[in-house]
Amino acid sequence: MGLRNDFLWGGATAANQCEGGYDEDGRGLANVDVAPAGADRISVITGEMKMYDFDNQHFYPAKKAIDMYHHYKEDIALFGEMGFKTYRLSIAWSRIFPKGDEAEPNEAGLQFYEDLFKECHKYGIEPLVTITHFDCPMHLIEKYGAWRNRKLVGFYENLCNVIFRRYKGIVKYWLTFNEINMILHAPFMGAGLYFEAGENKEQTQYTAAHHELLASAIATKIAHEVDPNNKVGCMLAAGSTYPYTCNPNDVWKAAEANREAYFFIDVQSRGRYPAYALKALARKGITIPFMDGDAELLAAHTVDFISFSYYSSRCTSADPEMSGNTEGNIFASLKNPYLDASEWGWQIDPLGLRITMNELYDRYEKPLFIVENGLGAIDTPDENGYVADDYRIDYMRAHIQAMKDAVELDGVDLLGYTMWGPIDLVSAGTGEMKKRYGFIYVDRDNEGNGTLRRSKKKSFEWYKAVIASNGEILENL
Ligand code: BG6
Question: Is residue 132 within 8 Å of residue 32, measured between CB atoms?
Fold first, then answer.
């Protein structure tokens, strides 16, 4: 038995990485807009360097991105041509509530997404909507301190009330927070957190995390109340951490690293703080600002499915002498000597996807959804914009095979697969355009030059055949 008949094949994007139009039709400024390309990006997205507005020294790629704000019909038509069953996208909070704390939403922002969702349905594409993909209105950061402030829970609740009602019947799959564990690794990008000198960072991160977990439970509650057909998922930056050796100290270190990530999903899926987290937080002197009713709320509104991104596995050692860190998805890991790596140093481990899927399914026994996976690579187009991206096909073929093994051989229940960046877009980690994931090439470079013309790569026809055969045909054409 293969993948389910209604398997949701598609691709995933995030508003700030593709839309552009950062100040159009009433949209407000957000943290993701002021993350510059270049050397300072990492300090900004980790909350070490304060950047609350644009300056003249930096280039801000999200301002225009690939201008999907004006190209979405053309782009969705191409997704339709590939046979997408779903398109994962995020709404920009500051299009709907430009400042975040208004009583009334911005109609132009609501209409934009309504039009976009209807465009998807023209091609039989089911939208899968991330409510927050790293974005937070700048006003909520400046006035309230972002997610460290419990008031954000109420503002997020307003957003959910508006969008679940407005899009009832045209959207039924929702994700509450993209890569919720990113709050630990890129706290300004992940949750709008900039740290003042002397601030206890970890305390702030877990306070903010508690607020996001409450907001996620409230979103799940409202989604189910508004429409019982709604399905709500959590979203984890996944990729199991392996012990570097069979030394029990390494094995324990890896178990702790995995728990650091699973902590969030444990709460969202099981509805309570796990014992290990309560102990570890208490040992560090971190207090979680629990209020009356919080425990009941978390317990009553757990997610329907578990979604995650997977790019690579990770590796850790208890030996302080170990060096040789490799790049990773924001959080670095030791280099695994058994694996090759991408041009950005992300190690390539298809079997790791099967391992991760099994761990998640064993732990939660809820349907899984792979909502990001792909290869960021340098593409060299010919004069027609065509790219022979066999390396991308190889990466994806191996990962889709591993995904099928997890379903067919291990019995994992999998709802769908949306690869990351079906159309080239701005990299979240580096702000570059040249780190490309797409089946569709976009003529735009790191400095913002280019015609924005879209063209098909070799992988476009390959993925179309994969979808048409429901994953039975994976060979390169
Ligand atoms: C995930 C994010 O972390 O990885 C995406 O959810 C991001 O927003 C993707 O783009 C790939 O990372 P990068 O840094 O190559 O863009």
Answer: no
Cβ atoms 426, 66 nearer than 8 A: yes
152: which 2 tokens? 């954000």
Cβ(376) to ligand 1 under 6 A?
Answer: yes
Label residue 321 exposed, middle or buried (CB < 10 Å: 0-12, 13-18, 19+): exposed
Compute the distance between CA of residue 48 and CA of residue 46 in angstroms, rounded to an integer.
6
Q: Read off the pTM.
A: 0.98
User: In angstroms, how far is CA 225 from the centroid of its own chain?
Assistant: 25
Domains, in order of start, for the chain: 8-468 (3.20.20.80)
Residue 189 near ligand 1, beta carbon < 6 Å: no
Q: Which atom of ligand 1 is nearest to the CA of 428?
A: 16
Confidence (pLDDT) at 321: 85
User: Between β-strands 305-309 and 314-316, what pairing exists: parallel, antiparallel or unpaired?
Assistant: unpaired
pLDDT digits (tens, 9 = 90+) for 243-277: 999 999 999 999 999 999 999 999 999 999 999 99
Q: Which two tokens stand for residue 405?
A: 């093994």
Q: Residues near 411 by Cβ (< 8 Å), separated by ≥ 6?
A: none
> Quick check: CB of 309 below 6 Å from ligand 1?
yes
What atom of ligand 1 comes closest to residue 134's alpha carbon? 8
